[in-house]
Structure formats: C-alpha cells, structure tokens
Give the backbone structure.
Amino acid sequence: MSKRTRRKFVRDLSTLIAAGAATDLSMGAIPFPFITGNTSAGSAIKQGKTFVGIQMSPHTMLDEGIEACLDLIAETAGVNAVFPYSHAFHTSSLGKPVRYLAKDHGKPPRDLRNKVPAVWVRHNEKYFKDTVLRIKATDKELEFSDRDLFKEIRQPANERGIKVFARILESTGIFIENFDSVLTVDSYGNPGRKACWSNPGYINFWKAVVADMFNSYELDGFQWGAERMGPLMNIILPWNDDPPACFCKHCIERGRAANIDTERAREGYRLLYEYVRRLMTDSPKPPEGVFTVFLRHLIKYPEILSWEYLYRKSREDLQKGMYETIKSIKPDALVGWHVDHQPSSWDIIYRAEMSYEEMAPYSDFIKLILYHEVLGPRIRSWYLDRFKKTILSEISLEQSLELYYDLFGYDKNQEPPVDKLFSEGFSPDYVRRETARSVASANGKTQIFAGIGIDVPGSPPDDPETVYMATLNALEAGAGGIVISREYEEMSVKNLEAIGKAVNDWENKS
Ligand SMILES: [Zn+2]
C-alpha cells in the first residue's frame, strides 16, 4: 500500500470511528464525554522539555474553566505554553459557529459570535503618551468583559508548569480610536483600510501596547502577527482589490532616504496594478505575452521592487521596536513572530526578501504556519486559481502546481495533484521539508517553532496518524518547538493526543 493510499485508508477509518462517536453522542447518554488515552495507567502524556505551545481564543478557556482547560491540554498534548489572544484586531468577532468547534472538551461548545471581547488586557493611559491611538473601551455587556484572564491564569498555569504568552493579530482599526490618522495611502492618493508600518503614530502605538502589557502583567512571552501581503504580491496574487500602498508622507520620506525615486515607484505600481487588473477581465491578452509584459513593468520600473523591499523593512522595524521595548522591561521574555500560511508556504516574494537569519536580531522565535491538511484547498483557491487569472495565465494549472512544488522544494510524489487539492491535504512530508528549509534559513540564529494545524475549518479531515507524523517530522527536521494551531477550541482530543504522543516519542528517542 503506498503512503498516500495508506493515509487515505487511515483517514476513512478515523471517519468511521468519528461517525460512531457522533452516533453515541446523539443518543445523549453522556453528553460530550471527556475521554483521553491518559486515563489508562501507563499511557499518560507527559510535559517534556520540548516547547509545546497552543493557540486559543481567551473566551474558550473561561467558558470551559481555566483549570479544566489547562488540565486538558497538558494531559492530552503535553502543552507547556499557552497563547491566548490579548488582542484580536483581525476579526470583528472571536466567536465561531458551533460546527467549527470541538465537541469533546467536556462541555458543549457555544456560538459566541459578537458576544465576547476582542481585547483581553486592561490598558493604562500613561503608556500611550506618544500616540493618538487608543484602544476602545470594552463593551460591558459582552460576556467575560469583567474577567482579567492574564491575571487569573497566572497561578493555575504556574501550578501546571505552563508558560503564558500573549498573542496578537493586528489588522483594521475596528477596536482602535483615531485609526484614520495612521492609514496607508495608496498609489492613487486615497486612504487605505490598514495602518502604515512607517507611521510614527502606529509604531509608537505598538510600543505602548507591549510596554503596558509587560509592566502590568506577568507574561512569559509574546507573539505578534500581521496577515498582510506586500504591495507587489497583492497585485499578482490578489488577496483583495485594494490598489498598492503605501505612499504616505512617512513612506515617501523613507523612500527618499533610501535613494528611491518615489514618483517612479508610485507610477510603476499604478501601471502594474492597472495591467494586472485588465488581465483579470475579458479584455484581449497582450500579444507579446502576459508574463513578458509583467517582466517589462519590473524592468522599466525597478523602483517597484525597491518599494516592495522598503515595505517589508518597515514591517520588520515595527517588530524590532516591540522586541526592544519588551526586552527593556523583561529581558528573559520570549518574543517572536507569527508567519502566516501565505508567507510560510507560497509567497515567494516574502521568502526572497530576507532570510530568517536576518530577522534573528529581534526574534527569539519565528512561528510558521505549517497546516498540512488545509494547504491543499488553499493552494487551489488562493494560489493556483488566482495566478491563473493574473500573470501565470499562460500555463496550465497542472504546470503551475508542478512549478510551485519544485520552486518550494516540496515532493510532488507525496503531495496532491490538482484534482485532489480540495479533497486531500498536504502530507506530513511538507511539514518536514518546510521546517528543514526554515531551520536552514534561520542558520542557528533563531528558533523555528512549527505551527502544527489540526481541525482547521475548511480543511480535509485530520486523522491522528497523519497529525502524529507531521509533529514528529517537524521535530526531526530541527524545529525548536511546536505551537498547536489554529485555535484550541477547534481541536479534537484525539488529534491533541496524537501530538502529545509524537512529542513524547521524540523525546524518548532523542
Ligand atoms: Zn506609509
């Protein structure tokens, strides 16, 4: 039986088992039983020396009960670090539909969309003197708005040998006052929807947030992320229709200081954006070739690439500012960055711009999203289909996928063909290869944490054997630790246990 066929067999088997379990639950004898492998003598998962973090939405922990939740993650997956959001600026609501939530955590999940806060720490005005931005007050009607999670969790976490990391995803200004003052400016001179990395008001805002948090709370670490693409990638692989940014006065100043012709950068971006937008319509394709004319824009306007790099550098500088602020308050805190799925696994421009070694001076760790199952649908919808509409329309989807596998160093014999991308995820071999590549990119200067994804919505179903192999592969490939992802509330116990077993086996072997 080939590896792929075997995987499919295991998956079918686990689906059958899951179906059986669902039948039992529907009979309602014991709702949502909490049964784990560690209930039998000798099979307990142990917390070890390997860093095992887990991401979660804060309200889940409060809903399930802090102690029960910490016990569950320690006893199933050997978790020794929790990553609840302190700020969830990336979404209007942390709650999720019940169909996305695990049913075996010992308590029935609830749909808490628009019912829980986005910000989970209490801020102090005195830290925000250098910015006009303020975090909006939490609506007191929201459930758990009276709770102070990062204070409440401290003692129970200490008692269980679990570190506490605050986790943030930035994005729009839904929860931030005066956000208009830091917005990007696009190549047409119009304001964008997100903040500019180079705006001192935004830079100082983030320094204020982390200074406040590390002065006011006892935190062991911090993870910050921004799921945005650079201006060039968002043209050729459009996540949204926004024109390229940023050309605000602060970016123009940075551009001039870097000896870039800022007007030519703006013009180049405008023309490239308009060219790709035309490609996405039914208008005739350029007779000289779609990809050729794309290259012509870069050759005529090399400022496009310079501006893209400037954008990336300004993002890194913002992270550096937070790193130095935290270290000045708590030198032994672990500070690192969330690299989301696109930059970890298909944004070749992000990858080309700098190595992880170059980020190391302000990174104690870099956590990569390595969700093997959901990568299949994502590559189909977010990569192949989009490139087909833009600059890779001249090659077939099959050719495009083969090119992707080869350029990223993945094994096309292990990974799915085009017609299986939606139904089959990537293999644990992808996790191994991407971890090894990232460890090499870090060159021993910073730690790579592998973000192992389980039960991610939109994903083909996980099975414990594949989850086990993905975890083991990450550790064998040199990951300094793992961070179980996306969020705890989505994760089934059987997959958490598969991770715990892989980590235990790895430690017993090494
Ligand atoms: Zn700007």
